[in-house]
Amino acid sequence: MGWILLELQVMNSPFNQEQVDLLNRLLPTLNTTQRIWLSGYIAALPETAAGPTTASAVATPVETSPTTTETVSFSKDVTILFGSQTGNSNGLAKKMSKKLEEQGFQITLSSMGDFKPNQLKKVENLLIVVSTQGEGDPPDNAIPFFEFVHSKRAPQLEHARFAVLGLGDTSYEFFCQTGKDFDKRLAELGAERLVPRVDCDVDFEEPATAWMNDVLAALTQSATASASPAMTDQPAVSSTVESEYTRTNPFQAEVLENLNLNGRGSSRETRHIELSLEGSHLEYQPGDSLGVYPQNHPQLVNDIISAMSWNSDDIVTISKHGDQASLHEALLHHYEITTVTKPIVQQLAELSSSDELKALVAPGREQDLRAYISGIDLLDLIQDHSFAGVSAQEFTSVLRKIPARLYSIASSPQAFPEEVHVTVRAVRYEARGRERYGVCSVHLAERLEAGDTLPVYIQHNDNFRLPENPETPIIMIGPGTGVAPFRAFVGEREETGASGKSWLFYGDQHFATDFLYQTEWQRWLKDGVLTRMDVAFSRDTADKVYVQHRMLERSKELFEWLQEGAAIYVCGDEKQMANDVHLTLEQIIAQEGQLSPEEATEYLTRMQQEKRYQRDVY
Amino acid sequence: MGNLEKEKPYPPHDRAHSDVEDIKRNSNYLRGSLEETLKDPITGSIPEDDNRLMKHHGSYMQDDRDLRTERNKQKLEPAYQFMLRVRASGGVVTPEQWLMMDSISHKYGNDTIRLTTRQSFQLHGVLKWNLKNTIREVNESLLSTLAACGDVNRNVMCNPNPYQSDVHAQVYEWACKVSDHLDPKTRAYHEIWLDEEKIIDSNDVEPEPIYGAVYLPRKFKIGIAVPPSNDVDVFSQDLGFIAVVENDVLLGFNVSVGGGMGMTHGDDKTYPQVSKVIGFCTPEQMIDVAEKTVTIQRDYGDRAVRKHARFKYTIDDRGLQWFVDELHERLGWQLQSARPFHFDHNGDRYGWVKGSNGRSHLTLFIQNGRIMDDGDYQLMTGLREIAKIHDGDFRLTANQNLIIGNVSNRKKKKIEELIERHQLTAGAHYSALRRNSMACVSLPTCGMAMAEAERYLPELIDKIEPILEEAGLRDEDIVIRMTGCPNGCARPALAEISFIGKAPGKYNMYLGGSFTGHRLNKLYKENIGEEEILNSLRPMVNQYAKERIAGEHFGDFVIRAGYVAEVLDGMQFHA
């Protein structure tokens, strides 16, 4: 147990068919000790110096500097630092850690937020797994470490080696920028690059696995391989049943309830969806997110097929393993068709007969290209440029897999065992004369009924957790659907009988129609589970009032709560709300604590480090 | 008199009080915790205790019952909203006041105005956060909501008599005086709604010299009729005044006591009642009579059982003579003998008339009192345009209709043009049945409604009209009324045909009220739906067409023909 063997194939390994057959017969019979012995034995063979592994086709190629094959002896101490916003980097770092531990490495695994910068100079092998936010920024809790590394105080790292795995989304301009920054900076500080950096798109599993294997190979090769005798008594199998369902193997959850939380007359539509996790063994905590794989809008699929004069029933190959599906099925379930990224448009330009498009992807036109692809979908691209004669197979093999959408979980697992609830606002708008839909939200709003199933997985998020101490007061700021995780928080605190005070700031457009979960908050207030609640409805009065205005009105009490040790949680829109709330917090701390602006900023930074200021923003 | 004091049977205030009595007593003259609960931002409602007090300020909390189940499922509280009743003695307002009502109905209400059966305005759909501004604007235009509901004297009704305009002016003046005299005197209203300074009550002075700290046991209603019109349904009032006029001079009023509509389904101890005439007073004596009558009800009304607390039960339980004696004792003088009077009808007379002052008056038919724009029928807009140029007044009638009063000759042509342009109507093209119809608000806003009324009666009349037409009775005046519950806002117990809601789509059907409003009707069939209503009416109407005596009204005919028994006193209503 413990490792799930990937069945070797000619396609996914460097072996020929005969070797594959032999290995497939041998490998499953090995116990842990045998495996470790074998890997050490093979690693020690002089002929097996593995060449640099290239990232899978989906990942962006990265300029490489040759890995050294110096025979310097390095220790087996490896430090893995992750910077994670939604938990993906965290998950990958844990996976890497486990992989290396199995091979006898001693691992220090830490989030960048928890890592003491003065320890950096002692690190010998440094692995960085980091995602990129919005405008190329590091995740919230990675910012102090990022700034330290880029500052003059950063130590020289000539004796260290490193590798960087970046996570990002090619539909953003500054794709994997934080990973790139770390990669560049660590090299500048004199550290040696173990393996080339890999930049992962939303579909990160394959390139990340490849990167891990490369890192493992590079570390194993250079480590003084003494077949690690210390590893004979491997830890026993964990007692809890681990779920087999993951991001790559989602659980088909049955829909128990799907209703609109907005009253009649609202301009909003917010779905409350209850899903059954029965039989999945999936477990989650308040603060975690639910990954949901949506279907594309059937209308858009049909429009693309007819615009290209393809046939819905044509069979296309949809994976490297040769899985097949009808074109309709493939566009509906497998491929992302509502976002056009730079790599995709570059590859499609080669198929197109449009000179204009070819010119647009040429070097020097990056600005124009970015402007063009912003907000368009595949149908726009097809309508703007000729793809006459391009087959469905040629076309679709360029596309990205449809990514899962993450929603902050709105239920407490204590209050709703074997269920998970999410709060999803339907996104609809018009652009270029055509109605546009949020892929997942409108799927959930329009084409999902009780009894249907939905592919889901749990995305753990250790950066958004209730305080360990049940007496710690909490302040929750969550306008709109940002209130979702706080329904989980308050529900959890009710179930566990936590005695800490709690205070919720909520807002939306109209009191009468947009007060999400109103009767539940009212009950919690009445029962004393929720201590205070302040609301801001922006369209009910002449002056638009938002949550930060309510915070300011209550600045004295709010600061008192902070001084009592309260933890602050912010969830919801990043660009406007979270930023305004942050500035307001600084203002309140400066004003009520009689501090300078710099001191107030420091106060908040300290809260962040103490995990007393956590955000789940999007 | 000491003897009499001892013989007063079981003074009710020795018995356990109903919870509402405690709420009033502990409210510090209607303040309660209203100021705080109005500010609570988490709910659009106020607690029930405060809602009880709120009524005295002229407003009830309601919710849109059409949405109740749906919103409950959506984890939203009911669509709480407030009905705001704006009172004007005798229903007379200026064009400026009309424009203010129109404006606030759009700004804070549901874009409609409801004219009530007591000559008041109702706004529906006012949100809690807007109440204060709404009430402030009402007061700024010199109208008020104070005491429009609650356990006090309500809006004093008065015949808007467009024919005898000189007499109307005199009667109207007395109506206002009675109303002002009986207004609650608490400062709570001004503090809560108008931000007036809080005055610490001194212990020496009673803030409510007439009502005292617990106010009346129940609501109290006064109406003034000017014969031959009984449009105010004077016999339905707790206290009625019937004007006695000789040669255009107001001599005084016959006084009637103990009427009231409300009852409870299934409780025979509750019943509608008609008031009894007990004597005559001069105009100058009127206020004294009103005040003493109110204080008798204050002291003897039942404070233990609210549904038995109306003045009619106080009188029926103790006897009319007991009341007259008590009144004379408190007045220190005696009423004169009642003068003869005669009523012709209790409905409105539509169209233009010229008053004795030379000015013109136009009575418009307003279906169920609802002022709104509905597709092509731009009633609300038309009235707004008229109000902008009108130099007379508007008068709300007791039958939920509207009089454009005191139109000068100079403006008459212009107003006629506006009437034409907006196709406003005096109802001439409607059947007489529809012109004599009246329904309460009921669903979706009224919390007491058991069945539809305002939204259904027009439709039911659509289906009765062919029956009348077939019988040749399209232009025969027949009074028809419908309420969603037995509390009787549309005074259903006095109609010739009436329906009182029991359950969705089900009504009790009553027959035999008099055309003049002096006789109660009687239960004919219980708990029936539309089909049975129509099947019951068809043979009756046909028989009436064939067998009626000249001048015989439908309500009289059904008694003569034996469909129902005559009810001259409420105590026989259930017999």
Automatic annotation (TrEMBL), chain A:
FMN binds at S131, T132, Q133, G134, L167, G168, D169, T170, S171, Y172, E173, F174, F175, C176. Binds 1 FAD per subunit. Binds 1 FMN per subunit. This is assimilatory sulfite reductase (NADPH). CDD domains: SiR (cd06199). One of its GO terms (biological process) is cysteine biosynthetic process. It catalyses: hydrogen sulfide + 3 NADP(+) + 3 H2O = sulfite + 3 NADPH + 4 H(+). FAD binds at T338, R405, L406, Y407, S408, Y429, G438, V439, C440, S441, Y618. Residues 78-216 form the Flavodoxin-like domain. GO terms for molecular function: flavin adenine dinucleotide binding; FMN binding; oxidoreductase activity, acting on NAD(P)H; sulfite reductase (NADPH) activity.
From TrEMBL, chain B:
Residues 78-140, 358-420 form the Nitrite/Sulfite reductase ferredoxin-like domain. Residues 1-24 are annotated as: Disordered. Siroheme binds at C489. Its EC number is 1.8.1.2. One of its GO terms (cellular component) is sulfite reductase complex (NADPH). [4Fe-4S] cluster binds at C440, C446, C485, C489. GO terms for biological process: cysteine biosynthetic process; hydrogen sulfide biosynthetic process; sulfate assimilation. Binds 1 siroheme per subunit. Binds 1 [4Fe-4S] cluster per subunit. InterPro entries: CysI, NiRdtase/SiRdtase_haem-b_fer, Nit/Sulf_reduc_fer-like_dom_sf, NO2/SO3_Rdtase_4Fe4S_dom, NO2/SO3_Rdtase_4Fe4S_prot, NO2/SO3_Rdtase_4Fe4S_sf, NO2/SO3_Rdtase_FeS/sirohaem_BS. Pathway: Sulfur metabolism; hydrogen sulfide biosynthesis; hydrogen sulfide from sulfite (NADPH route): step 1/1. The keyword Protease does not apply. Residues 174-334 form the Nitrite/sulphite reductase 4Fe-4S domain. Keywords: 4Fe-4S, Amino-acid biosynthesis, Cysteine biosynthesis, Heme, Iron, Iron-sulfur, Metal-binding, NADP, Oxidoreductase. It comes from the Bacteria. Coiled coil: none annotated. It catalyses: hydrogen sulfide + 3 NADP(+) + 3 H2O = sulfite + 3 NADPH + 4 H(+). Component of the sulfite reductase complex that catalyzes the 6-electron reduction of sulfite to sulfide. This is one of several activities required for the biosynthesis of L-cysteine from sulfate. This is Sulfite reductase [NADPH] hemoprotein beta-component. It comes from Paenibacillus nuruki.
